[in-house]
From TrEMBL:
Protein name in UniProt: Heat-inducible transcription repressor HrcA
Pfam families: HrcA (PF01628)
Gene name of this polypeptide: hrcA
Keywords assigned: Repressor, Stress response, Transcription, Transcription regulation
Taxonomic lineage from the root: Bacteria, Pseudomonadati, Pseudomonadota, Alphaproteobacteria, Rhodobacterales
Organism (species): Ruegeria spongiae
Residue ranges annotated for the Heat-inducible transcription repressor HrcA C-terminal domain, each copy included: 115-336
Keyword ATP-binding applies: no
Function: Negative regulator of class I heat shock genes (grpE-dnaK-dnaJ and groELS operons). Prevents heat-shock induction of these operons.
Membrane-spanning residues: none
InterPro entries: GAF-like_dom_sf (IPR029016), HrcA (IPR002571), HrcA_C (IPR021153), WH-like_DNA-bd_sf (IPR036388), WH_DNA-bd_sf (IPR036390), WHTH_transcript_rep_HrcA_IDD (IPR023120)
Length: 354
């Protein structure tokens, strides 16, 4: 049990009601909430002075903060965490939101990457936040590899996977390459890779090259190493992060400091920092998880929230994640079912295509 949850259990009914109303009002408007506003909406009739005393107690506990001396209160990060864990009411997903996401799927035979790109855009549009889609790694076994010369300084490496997908990568071949040296390089690789995944090949192919230097000439060896670099790059078989909806967050930034925090966040995302953390964040089990502010190091500087859920393949293995980034005053009750539905939909679609 977290400290915030224990605090909630120790509160009396009045304190819980005041706290809940302050957070819900803040999430709806983004504005601080004062005691006079609360006295008009509380179920029990109490004075403004009594409500102020409750608010002061909540502030002392670290659940509320006062932006200005004479202003009302807003929830702290700790307060938002307590609300999300103990008081959040998650509603049903609206039919219009479901229809909008479903309508982006398009041709069921289209490639997975394009499908995930469209889903990311739809998720951003529905939630009015920034969406994240972590695409799965390509772990199919390789059937065949081939090198194709395009020019004296340009060549293409073609990978054919056992599931029928084909991946092409351009690279610069070593000087003096010939059609015969390219065939030798491809033949050498094909003796090693057939029926294996890229990940498995990566672990020992350089060792094989070193051990078999006498079997291939230096030009063919260089071709292998150059081609290997082309499809062994960090972005080839690793997960890809799709980010959509940057303008949604920038549009809400009304202060220079907040604008700079959001820019920092997107700079980090575009540099793919901590991309693997998205899967690690979701490994503790199925379902949606909510990270508020500094609870996730990637968002600690931006003060944003992340609502994220993993999706799985047919073997119930986590292969990617879907999420929404927004300000800490996200409408969590609406966002959670949308992210949950989208993650389940992506998992089903990928499993069906497998």
């Amino acid at each position: 049990m977290s400290d915030a949850t224990k605090l909630l259990e120790d509160m009396n009914e009045r304190s819980r009601e005041v706290f809940r109303m302050i957070v819900e009002s803040y999430l709806d408007s983004g504005e601080p909430v004062g005691s006079r506003t609360l006295t008009r909406t509380l179920n029990e009739k109490v004075s403004a002075a009594t409500v102020r005393n409750v608010m002061q107690d909540l502030e002392y506990l670290g659940l509320l903060d006062s932006p200005h001396v004479s202003a009302g209160r807003v929830p702290t990060q700790m307060g938002l965490r307590m609300f999300v864990d103990g008081l959040l009411e998650v509603g049903e997903m609206e039919d219009a939101d479901r229809t909008r996401i479903d309508s982006t799927l398009g041709n069921e035979h289209s490639d997975v990457s394009g499908m995930l790109d469209r889903i990311g855009s739809a998720l951003s549009g529905v939630t009015q936040g920034a969406s994240l889609v972590l695409t799965p790694k390509h772990e199919s076994e390789i059937r065949h590899i081939e090198f194709v010369s395009l020019a004296h300084d340009r060549a293409l490496v073609v990978l054919v996977f056992s599931d029928g997908q084909v991946e092409n990568r351009l690279f610069t071949p070593p000087p003096g390459q010939t059609p015969s040296s390219m065939r030798e390089a491809a033949n050498f690789l094909n003796t090693l890779i057939e029926g294996r995944t890229i990940g498995a090949v990566r672990r020992d192919i350089q060792t094989q090259i070193a051990a078999r230097r006498q079997e291939i000439d230096s030009l063919a060896r260089e071709m292998v190493e150059s081609g290997l670099a082309a499809w062994d790059s960090k972005d080839t078989d690793s997960a890809r992060l799709i980010v959509r909806g940057r303008a949604n967050l920038l549009g809400e930034a009304d202060q220079a400091e907040e604008l700079e925090r959001i820019r920092t966040l997107f700079d980090d995302l575009e540099r793919k920092r901590d991309i693997a953390d998205f899967l690690e964040l979701t490994e503790e089990g199925e379902g949606v998880r909510i990270f508020i502010g500094s609870e996730n190091k990637l968002f600690s500087l931006s003060g944003s929230s992340l609502v994220v859920s993993p999706y799985m393949n047919a073997d119930r293995k986590i292969i990617g994640a879907v999420g929404v980034i927004g300000p800490t005053r996200l409408n969590y009750g609406r966002i959670v079912p949308i992210v949950n539905y989208t993650a389940q939909l992506v998992g089903k679609l990928i499993s069906d295509r497998s």
